[in-house]
Amino acid sequence: MTSKISYSKFIKEDIRRRGWLLVLSAVLLFLCVTVTTLLMLEASFANISQDELAEQWNIYRTVFPGLLNGSYNLLLFAALLLLGGLCAVTGFSYLHSREQTDFYHSLPLSRRQLFFISYLGGLLVFLVPYLAASLLAVLAGFAHGFFTLPVLGRCFLSVLGGTLAFLMVYHLMILAMMLTGKVVTGILAAVSLFFYGSIIGVLAAGLPLQFFSTYYTGRGQFLEKLYDFLSPWPMFGQILGNTANYNVADDRYRYISSLSYYLRRLARPANPYSLAATLAAAAVFLAVLLLLALLLYQKRPSEAAGNALSFPITAPFIKVLISVPTALCIGILVGSMYSGGTKWIILMSILAVILLCGLIEFIYHMDVRRLFAGKYSSLASLLGVAGILCVLQFDVFGYDTWLPEEDSLESMSLDVSQMYGYFSYPDTVSRSTDHPQYPDLLNGEICQIQEFAPIYELARSGVENAGKGADKMAGRELESLNQSSNAGTRETEMNGRESEPLDEQVYITIRYNKKSGSSVYRNYRVSAREVLDTLDILCQEESYRKILFPVFYADYEDISAVRLTDIYWEPKILDLTEKEQDALLDAYKQDVLNVDIRDLQLERPIGELSIDIPEGMQFVGQMAYDSKYNFTLGGFYLYEGYENSLALLETYGYTLRREIDPEDVEQVKLAETIYTEEAPAEGKFSVPDTSERIVTDSDEIAAVLSQVQYTTSRLLISTHAAGTSAEILLTGNKEPTYYTLTDEVRPSQRDVN
User: Spans of biased composition, class Basic and acidic residues (predicted)?
Assistant: First the structure.
């Protein structure tokens, strides 16, 4: 049995054998951690005042830990990946040479001992320089005076996260070396293992999205959480992000400029998890990879060196497991570049799986004559891709037409995507912690409607549309519908108000909450009229209106000013005291609680309130600063029925102007867009003709001004312009203001001056 002393000597000898890697690791980590940190500190603290110094201290107390593990350091992020791979390859590359394998296995050491000698040698090659470089960076932080005990603790967690991220790559690469007999195939296997889960995640979200019109990815689902903890790539990002940003007091910093967070989102968006859950999952994941690599090493035949795979019996299974998802992923990637439906996805997936099967066989045998040697595995791969595509294309399991039984539901919730083009919410600038920063109409507790009959009927309509293929309508049908609306052929009138294109379809998302406790999400397209009827019923509840209207998300303490805009489109800051400002917003709240929700679609706004909110902390590249500018949040539209707001504005001396005075206009330019009756051939793009002319006659200017409207914004569907617009230059202004006209004014029908 080898003594502890001789065992340590073998580890030292292994490190000495890889001396070049130790030097590379030390230099690389010193540059990526210590030098990079020093440069950023010097750049941030040079030539600043005492007040700015205190501000920079607060900033770096937040972002400094991210410099130590790659979460806020691109160079270190790349170094972790590179060193993890190099340490594994240099430590176990002898397994890919028969002479070296025979030599090492002839030593008086068990395979387990040989495994851990190389394993520990590679780990120390990285760990010692990394800890030293991190310690120097921390000392530099102490020297600049912003360190506190909590910051030091977060730095420790950050370094722990960097070590775990390195081990993620290290263990995965070791496992790949055990599975293969050549260094090149080992590297390819490691890359495949590292991104395999991400490819599966892309397929799980991308394939249904391409084939099912009602598919909704949802959030917080069990399979998505499982993917985050079982796939190496998102796990790598979770480790770096959570350990670097743990227990940040201000949530605005949590993932700002966190490189790992954005890289993880490239594969699939996911919610962050607690530090304890991340560390526990990482420990289990790393232990499983290490034990699996050790087990394979003990079972690995010595004659495997030089072969593509260490266990030839796994070749057909690996081929199928790689070629099927990769081909489908290629199909999605290529198919998404074209608007020809799913035919390109199907065609490219079939072509890709054939090519991939040949490529894999070439890697196995390194002989072009054996590209199709594995006939049965190639056939299985081809049938697997074709079978999956057939199930999706023909919706074999009825995904799009599924509708749960009404008595099986506990509650439902509704989200209308078009409303977010009408409402503007103070999501990124709100500092209030008493309410969510944006309305969660799907998952908010108060939005889970118990009396859901109106939403259920809306869902039924969406299912019927999906069954008829309404969501897969060709572009020509939608264009025909829009053109008929533009031409004024649709005559829908309600209560004497102007006609609106309420028969057009809008997107909605519905959440079904089953009595069993599970939730199911679906996307539908339904008519705007049906959505408006449903919203009218839901808005009978005051609590629902408070979630819907942005004014209830504004923190009065953060509002620095209130602006008023009318038909002149000249936002004016209201000269109000803080008490008057609050009273005006309270009056506006009362108006939106009383308004008929249909008026937001059927009536035209006459003006708009907007509020100024400080931007707060901003990031430019890798530099952070406290912005002194204001963010203007608009969309608080005013209507004729908003009696409380309008009366209070009158009291404060502000009157909304409904029309533009011709005396205030210097010039009007009319422009008419002319569409040809013949549709362009498929695959061609037609640019409409535009007729323009300058109007200077006072009578004609007055006629044009009578047809000017404030805005075309509506709750669901914007009014269609008649094809004529006006650029009005007000007296004293240098730039004109753009307006659309309520009725058609055709320059071609008038005398051109």
Answer: 490-500
In the numeric block, the tokens 């002393």 are attached to 5
- Residue 19 located in a structural domain: yes
**DSSP SS3 for 753:** coil
Round to whole Å and give the CA distance between 622 and 54: 18
| pLDDT tens digit sequence for 242-292 | 887 754 443 333 333 344 444 444 333 344 567 788 888 889 999 999 999
Which range marks the domain in which residue 695 is found? 662-749
Residue 63 and residue 257 in contact, taking contact as beta carbons nearer than 8 Å? yes
Average model confidence (pLDDT) across the chain:
80
Residue type at 32?
Answer: C
Cα–Cα distance measured from residue 701 to residue 380, given in angstroms and rounded to the nearest whole number: 74
Q: Which residue has the higher pLDDT, 717 or 355?
A: 355
641 lies in the same domain as 666:
no
Assess if residue 358 is contained within a domain. Answer: no
Residue carrying structure tokens 């074999």 = 396
Q: What are phi and psi of 231, to 5 degrees?
A: -105, 130
Q: Where are the beta strands (DSSP E) in 592-688?
A: 607-620, 623-638, 665-674
169 shares a domain with 73? yes
- Minimum mean pLDDT range among 200-204, 249-253, 544-548: 249-253
Note the pLDDT of residue 485.
Answer: 38
The alpha-helical segments, DSSP class H, found in 221-274 are 222-230, 232-244, 259-267
Closest CA to 737 of 746, 745, 727, 747: 727
Span 508-545, pLDDT tens digits: 999 999 999 888 999 999 999 999 999 999 999 898 89
What's the domain count of the chain? 4
**Residue 313 DSSP one-character state:** G
Domain boundary among 528, 552, 576: 552
DSSP secondary structure of 185-196: HHHHHHHHHHHH
What is the enclosing helix (H) or strand (E) of 413? strand 409-416
- d(Cα 455, Cα 252) in Å, to the nearest integer? 35
Q: How far, in Å, are 149, 616, 617, 619 from residue 252 at the CA level?
A: 22, 9, 8, 11
Classify residue 11 by burial, with Cβ atoms within 10 Å: 0-12, 13-18, 19+. Answer: middle
Residues 42 and 287: their CA atoms lie apart, in Å, by 41
Q: Which DSSP category does 32 fall into?
A: I
Are 547 and 567 within one domain? no
Across the strands, what pairs with 693?
Answer: 670
Structure token digits, residue 146 = 């912003």
Q: Is 486 exposed, middle or buried (0-12, 13-18, 19+ CB in 10 A)?
A: middle
Stated pTM of the model: 0.72
pLDDT of 438 over the 70 cut: no
Residue 340: inside a domain: no
Distances in Å between the Cα of 206 and the Cα atoms of 123, 151, 328, 398 are: 38, 41, 10, 18
Gap between the Cα atoms of 430 and 440, Å rounded: 15
Q: How far apart are CA 505 and CA 517, in angstroms?
A: 31
Query: Is position 397 within any domain?
Result: no
Element (H, E) at 152: helix 149-179
Confirm if 727 and 705 have CB atoms less than 8 A apart: no
Q: What three-state secondary structure class fits 738?
A: strand
Distance CA 670, CA 660 (A): 16
Q: How far apart are CA 11 and CA 14, in angstroms?
A: 5
The H or E element that residue 544 is part of is helix 542-548
